[in-house]
């Protein structure tokens, strides 16, 4: 009986120990699950924070780039530096900066077109000068090849006398035929005089007569 009671007492102690162990085990929280939940929730929050922070930084970067662009325009465009007296030292608005930029670009387009036209005109002048240069070089070369050529040419005085003789003859007929009573009559007389005294055969006869007269005077 003593042995039986001793074994029973030990069995009771073991049973109570198992009962207490199971109860303790059931009452102890699951550390693995809690650790998982504990780490998962802060991870979600930090990911959202990082996204929010990245979005904020990108937005700030975009605003800084726009601000720098407007500042650069205001520094480049000359008219932006000439602020109105009504504005004073206040900073120009973005709308004013854009409008002044548009106006300045249009001004530059007009200046470019004007310069292109000037360049085109200068190129034509250069081409004309080159042609004149070639002609003068040919004249000089011809004169060097024939140095005696031109000695028998008439002087400018003789040419003027020929022109004067022709004009004097024409003016005599013109003065005799033209009436200045009224502008209508003057116009009619001028056309009549041209048809009568400026015919090719008439002009030819006048020129021949003047040349014969000058020839007799010279020789």
β content, as a range? Answer: under 5%
Specify the CATH homologous superfamily of one domain. Answer: Helix-loop-helix DNA-binding domain
CATH class of one domain reads: Few Secondary Structures
pLDDT average, as an integer?
77
Count of helices?
7
In the CATH scheme, what's the topology name of one domain? MYOD Basic-Helix-Loop-Helix Domain, subunit B
Task: Report the C-alpha radius of gyration, rounded.
Answer: 57 Å
What is the first-to-last residue Cα distance? 188 Å
Contiguous uncertain segments of 5+ residues? 22-28, 31-38
Given helix and strand content, the structural type is mainly alpha
Molecular shape: elongated
GO molecular function, one term: RNA polymerase II cis-regulatory region sequence-specific DNA binding
Main location: cytoplasm
Subunit structure: Efficient DNA binding requires dimerization with another bHLH protein. Binds DNA as a heterodimer with MAD1, MAD4, MNT, WBSCR14 and MLXIP. Can also bind DNA as a homodimer.
Keywords: Activator, Coiled coil, Cytoplasm, DNA-binding, Nucleus, Phosphoprotein, Repressor, Transcription, Transcription regulation
């Amino acid at each position: 009986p003593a042995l039986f009671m001793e074994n029973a007492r030990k069995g009771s102690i073991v049973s109570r120990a198992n009962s207490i162990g199971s109860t303790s085990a059931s009452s102890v929280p699951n550390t693995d699950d809690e650790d998982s939940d504990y780490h998962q929730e802060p991870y979600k929050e930090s990911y959202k924070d990082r996204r929010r922070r990245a979005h904020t930084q990108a937005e700030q970067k975009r605003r800084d780039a726009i601000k720098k662009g407007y500042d650069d325009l205001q520094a480049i465009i000359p008219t932006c530096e000439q602020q109105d007296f009504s504005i004073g030292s206040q900073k120009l608005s973005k709308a004013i900066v854009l409008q002044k930029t548009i106006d300045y670009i249009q001004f530059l387009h007009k200046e470019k077109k004007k310069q292109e036209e000037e360049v085109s005109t200068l190129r034509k002048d250069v081409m004309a000068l080159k042609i004149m240069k070639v002609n003068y070089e040919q004249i000089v070369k011809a004169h060097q090849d024939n140095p005696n050529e031109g000695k028998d040419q008439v002087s400018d005085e003789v040419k003027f006398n020929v022109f004067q003789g022709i004009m004097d003859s024409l003016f005599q007929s013109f003065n005799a035929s033209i009436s200045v009573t009224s502008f209508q009559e003057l116009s009619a007389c001028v056309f009549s005089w041209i048809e009568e005294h400026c015919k090719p055969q008439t002009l030819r006869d006048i020129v021949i007569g003047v040349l014969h007269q000058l020839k007799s005077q010279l020789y």
